[in-house]
Amino acid sequence: MVQARPALTPADVDGRLVVVTPWYPTAENPYGGAFVRETTRALLGAFPDPLVVHVEVRALDAAPVEPSLGVVDGLEVFHLTAPMDPMTPRHRVAELVRDALAPYAPVLAAAAVLHVHVGMPTGWAVLDLVGDRTRVVVSEHASYLNKLWSVPQSEAMYARTVRGAALVTAVGEDTTRAVQQRYPEVADKVHTVPNPVDVERFAPRELPPTNLHRWLYVGNLLEAKGVLRLVRAFAAWHAQRPTATLTVAGGGVDADRVRALADELGVGAAVRLVGRVAPAQVGALYQDADVLVHLSVSETFGLTAVEALASELPVVATATRGGTRTLDVAQDEDMARLVPVGDGVEDVIAAVRELEERRASARPGLVRADLAVRFGTRPVGDVLAAALRGEPVDEPDPDAPLVVAVALHGSALPGAVRVVRDAVRRGARAVLIADGADRLELDRRVQRLDVAPIRAGLLSHRLEGWVLDGVPRALIGATRPLARRAGRERVVDAALQRQQRLSTRWKTAVGGPGHARIDPGALARVVTREAGPLVAGAALVTWGHVRGRPLAERIAAGSPGAVVVQDADLEVVSRVVQRA
Fold first, then answer.
1. pLDDT for position 383
2. Which of 119, 303, 371, 457 lies in the 20 to 30 Å Cα band around 127?
3. What are the domain boundaries of the chain?
4. 0.85 cut: is pTM over it?
5. Are 97 and 22 a contacting pair, CB within 8 Å?
6. Nearest to 120 by CA among 179, 78, 62
7. pLDDT for res 2
8. Any idea where the Glycosyltransferase subfamily 4-like N-terminal domain is (predicted)?
9. Strand 291-294 vs strand 402-407: parallel, antiparallel, or unpaired?
10. Average pLDDT per run of 10 along the chain, which is 580 residues long?
């Protein structure tokens, strides 16, 4: 229910949080921009009286809408429109959004802080209007940054946006990294803050599904969201499971194509299009389904998948940048499977079948608890509120418990990465000790110690290099001038190649096994001596492979009360961190 209010003035927003967004739920599209509403609600504890400014991009031939100020779902919303042709270039879209906001520039400047969703068009438009008159924090959700950056005009505008904003947040770690790499001079002010999800709003299932016959899709009906691939995959599944059904919730320009394709493939009677569904009704859809299948070409976060998992519904999604990060724990716990982006259907069928076969090993309750920690309204709201106030972001408490993961063998590395990943997500400090640790793409809150240089500096390795490579190559090389004068330089080259082959054979047959025995103890002594302060006081130490055990035990010896285990899953990490 919208209640009419007087015209907006600077006095109305003085000292308040103002949220500027191109998406927000409306009567026509109650689910559009729901994540913006939930993000704003998550901030109510820190900013109890926010104002949402919704600049809706509308087609030129759409019915005109006058600017209005009202209360929508408990939040004050100022709604205005920016009419334009759907094919308008992105840089021009930003200019038209700025023109729509221009009469309200004094209002925006009066805010205590401006939280602007998406860098283009709204971030650029707001910064062009208010400059440095008030603090502007931009939250990036866009999955089209590469396209935007490929056009010089829009790239220049985006560059101005990230440089002019006080802070930039992104809903996915890969988006954060992409922006940091594109604009390294401002990388320190780009951080990851995910979309908040009110996990408690979605009731857990009383019983897990016995089979995955009832497929569900929730989202916009666009080819880019994979809806046509979805129908083709469902048709292949339906050929094997004639009682299977597919419910499609959402609206969009490709709704008719979805229906036509279902009829063409002979599954029209099994495919139900229910149109757009109000957020309050989505939970019931999750309860009545067996699996959510979402095959989007690109996602920065994947809100629908998170909501489904909060309802303890298995998920099959594409391995987009957002999906890979958001669903990593769900994959570990057999509640999600990722398939490649593309047109194939066999991989989708295989993913659904695998989830069905592994349902006995799935841990939906653990995944739901993990979602509450990572994406819950309270934790995300606290982090975002700190960012809006200008407080440090992504800096763990120096008094937080410490988790150390050792990976001195390649087989131990995936488990060690999961341990430190789960630790920092729970507010702990984390250290990863591994070969090539500096080359890994990890949360920047994880401190790393690369043991490769330390290993190479061990006496056994230096002696091996000197005896097998250094001295022989120097002696052979010394004969090159004489060989060159005698026209026998090829003999020197052949000798060097033979020396290299012999060296490699020795290292494989003798050196490798020898180092496997010697290195663990030697590395343990050197690492604990050189990195003692970094790992002192650990609450949890994992060693992964037998080679890492001596180092883990030495670290634990300097950390009274530390839990030392070979591997630790999410449940163990959570328990140790909470206890500490």
1. 93
2. 303
3. 10-192, 199-373, 396-580
4. no
5. yes
6. 179
7. 44
8. 110-201
9. unpaired
10. 59 93 85 87 95 91 84 90 91 95 94 96 96 94 88 96 96 89 94 91 88 95 95 97 96 94 96 89 94 92 91 95 88 96 95 95 94 93 94 83 93 94 92 86 86 74 70 82 84 83 75 62 78 89 92 89 93 91
Cis peptide before 121, with omega less than 30 degrees from 0? yes
Whether 10-192 shares its CATH topology with 199-373 is answered yes
- How many Cβ atoms sit within 10 Å of the Cβ of residue 278? 10
Q: Structure tokens of 342?
A: 């593309």
Helix axes 364-375, 377-389, angle to 10 degrees: 20
Q: Find where tokens 């391995």 sit.
A: 319
Identify the three-state secondary structure at position 24: coil
Whose structure tokens read 């990388």?
187
Query: At 148, phi and psi to the nearest 5?
Result: -65, -40
Tokens 């004969």 identify what position?
A: 479
Per CATH, is 10-192 categorized as 3.40.50.300?
no
Nearest CA to 299 out of 170, 143, 144, 161 is that of: 143
Q: Which CATH superfamily is domain 199-373 in?
A: Glycogen Phosphorylase B; (3.40.50.2000)
Would you give the DSSP letter of residue 121? I
Instruction: Give the pair of three-digit tokens for residue 166.
Output: 């006080």
In the three-class reduction of DSSP (H, G, I as helix; E, B as strand; rest coil), residue 76 is classed as: strand
